[in-house]
């Protein structure tokens, strides 16, 4: 700063010196943003473009030469029954997980939307798993689901039912993985719902009860419609994060049994680092990324619309 | 809002039952880690260990270098969070108060990066790391994660809400811009900074996919990956060793649970402020 002031003394016209200072200032401003911009360019944007390039090649991740094969990887994916199976599993997982998490989250929100201190403590307990490592959570549930000694089967046996191999049976494995995600995320979802509930003016309920509307009717006619922006926000953000499921599958089932839990990111990892088909893996990455971008665009459009009719 | 509501006994009872049910997996994690191996196989499960033992923790440390894993996780977390916070502070200042060509377009490019999941970029970054010899080093764990677009976004919001007069006054006093940023703006944006700090510590501590891909030696493994490896090495044996895995898992989860307990009020306020605004 002091050097700039000195400089102005030597420059004849005041106008020019101001321009100089401005230019200097803006260069310094830019320098502050530069580290972030450079790192994003190197570690996000360049790899994104590079992934597209790799998806056009036949490459095993190690060999220095990448053979250009055009759209072959995409064509191979589109005729591969496994691709449709993985898509189906991923969307099944996502749709069921998001539906359960939102339904239970809304239920918990209504139950726990009380300002008493004890309820605050309980809300925190419900919310805590959101921050615990998915690796740890998966381990706990592997133990709970254990066929021979797991607590779940022990309880079932008490009721006379026969034990189930939750994670080794293709008909239950996907559900077992979904339940883990729901347990981990439902407290967070319910907190978002609670902040939505608290945004609804209490006068609406007062007016409705004067008109003789019961609790259930109030819930259907006031709470649900006025909560819809919150619900939409949650549907899309949960959808995007559920689509990216990997850790729980990697630890609990390894995509099995019989590919029953083979989701997209698991297949991407498997293709690239286990089968060394980096070209095919990258084609899948690009398709996966398109789905994410599409969902984000929908979220963006909806939130813009919401702002529009609120303002 | 300010005075507590009266709660019916039924509602309280249901709420307590639901909470206990939801808490059970974490309780089971903790309690299993204190049980001797034989007790895990008993037909009637014990809800409090018959023979309370710390042996599982000792055994876990003997089975795998947990101290090393813990150090690695700690170094990774400190490195990532320090870089993320400082780079975000600089960028947030530039985007909020600075004036340079293409500022808003470049900010959009920063925000857009939030859409790109790590699973989309990991192959090219892996190759890059291999080429510069950074695989199996802390560089690969830290440098590619040094920017948090989310952190830049939040801090920029906080800086924008600070009046320009504060900055102008400091400039008149001849303050350097780094001084303005760290001594004047940062203290004023402290609640936001703490939010970013907490979320980034949790995120980095729990990260799994990135270290799994970027490291493959026992020396460089972080806690989350170490636990996963311990499980697959034990799963090969006939022996049931969940008490060991649970002991290791407690070590991964405990610091985050403690952090959560001490900062939950802050987290809750930050969440209710930032979800829709």
UniProtKB/TrEMBL annotation, chain B:
Its membrane topology, per UniProt? Multi-pass membrane protein
What residue stretches are annotated with the ABC transmembrane type-1 domain?
70-263
What would be one Gene Ontology cellular-component term for the protein?
plasma membrane
Question: What InterPro entries does the entry give?
Answer: MetI-like, MetI-like_sf
User: One Pfam family of this protein, by short name?
Assistant: BPD_transp_1
Transmembrane portions of the chain: 12-31, 74-94, 106-126, 138-159, 180-202, 242-262
Keyword set, alphabetical order? Cell membrane, Membrane, Transmembrane, Transmembrane helix, Transport
User: Which GO biological process annotations does it have?
Assistant: transmembrane transport
Q: Does the record carry Amino-acid biosynthesis as a key word?
A: no
Q: Please give the family membership noted in the entry.
A: Belongs to the binding-protein-dependent transport system permease family.
What this protein is called in its record is Carbohydrate ABC transporter permease
């Amino acid at each position: 700063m002091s050097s700039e002031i000195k400089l102005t003394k030597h420059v004849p016209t005041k106008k020019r010196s101001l321009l100089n200072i401005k230019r200097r200032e803006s260069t310094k401003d830019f320098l502050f943003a530069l580290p972030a911009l450079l790192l994003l360019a190197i570690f996000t944007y360049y790899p994104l473009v590079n992934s597209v390039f790799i998806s056009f090649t036949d490459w095993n991740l190690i060999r220095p030469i990448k053979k250009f094969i055009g759209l072959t990887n995409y064509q191979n994916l589109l005729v591969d029954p496994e691709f449709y199976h993985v898509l189906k599993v991923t969307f099944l997982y996502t749709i069921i997980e998001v539906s359960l998490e939102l339904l239970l989250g809304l239920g918990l929100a209504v139950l726990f939307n009380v300002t008493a201190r004890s309820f605050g403590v309980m809300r925190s307990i419900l919310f805590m798993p959101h921050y615990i490592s998915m690796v740890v959570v998966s381990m706990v549930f592997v133990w709970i689901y254990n066929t021979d000694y797991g607590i779940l089967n022990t309880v079932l046996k008490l009721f006379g039912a026969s034990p189930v191999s939750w994670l080794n049976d293709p008909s239950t494995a996907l559900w077992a993985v979904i339940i883990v995600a729901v347990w981990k995320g439902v407290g967070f979802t319910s907190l978002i719902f609670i902040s939505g509930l608290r945004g609804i003016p209490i006068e609406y309920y007062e007016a409705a009860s004067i008109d003789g509307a019961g609790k259930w009717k109030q819930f259907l006619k006031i709470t649900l419609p006025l909560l819809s922006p919150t619900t939409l926000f949650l549907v899309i953000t949960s959808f995007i994060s559920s689509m990216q499921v990997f850790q729980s599958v990697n630890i609990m089932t390894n995509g099995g049994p019989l590919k029953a839990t083979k989701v997209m990111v698991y297949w991407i990892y498997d293709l690239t680092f286990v089968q060394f088909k980096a070209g095919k893996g990258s084609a899948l990455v690009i398709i996966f990324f398109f789905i994410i971008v599409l969902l984000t665009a929908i979220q963006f459009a909806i939130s813009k619309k919401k702002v529009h009719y609120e303002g | 809002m300010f005075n507590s509501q009266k709660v019916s006994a039924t509602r309280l009872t249901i709420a307590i039952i639901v909470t206990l049910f939801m808490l059970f997996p974490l309780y089971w994690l903790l309690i299993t880690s204190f049980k001797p191996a034989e007790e895990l196989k008993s037909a009637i499960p014990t809800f409090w260990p018959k023979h309370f033992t710390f042996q599982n923790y000792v055994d876990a440390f003997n089975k795998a270098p947990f101290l090393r894993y813990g150090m690695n996780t700690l170094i990774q977390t400190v490195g990532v969070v320090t870089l993320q916070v400082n780079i975000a502070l600089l960028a947030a200042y530039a985007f909020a108060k600075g004036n340079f060509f293409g500022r808003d377009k470049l900010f959009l490019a920063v925000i857009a990066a939030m859409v790109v999941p790590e699973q989309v970029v990991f192959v090219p970054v892996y190759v890059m790391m291999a080429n510069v010899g950074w695989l199996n080093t802390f560089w690969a764990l830290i440098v590619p994660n040094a920017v948090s677009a989310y952190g830049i976004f939040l801090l920029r919001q906080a800086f924008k809400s600070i009046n320009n007069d504060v900055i102008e006054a400091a400039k008149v006093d001849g303050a350097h811009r780094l001084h303005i940023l760290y001594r004047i703006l940062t203290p004023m944006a402290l609640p936001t900074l703490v939010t970013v700090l907490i979320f980034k510590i949790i995120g980095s501590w729990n990260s799994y996919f990135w270290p799994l891909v970027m490291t493959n030696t026992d020396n460089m493994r972080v806690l989350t990956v170490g636990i996963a490896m311990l499980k697959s090495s034990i799963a090969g044996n006939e022996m049931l060793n969940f008490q060991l895995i649970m002991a290791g898992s407690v070590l991964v989860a405990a610091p985050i649970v403690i952090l959560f307990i001490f900062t939950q009020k802050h987290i809750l306020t930050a969440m209710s402020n930032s979800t829709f605004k």
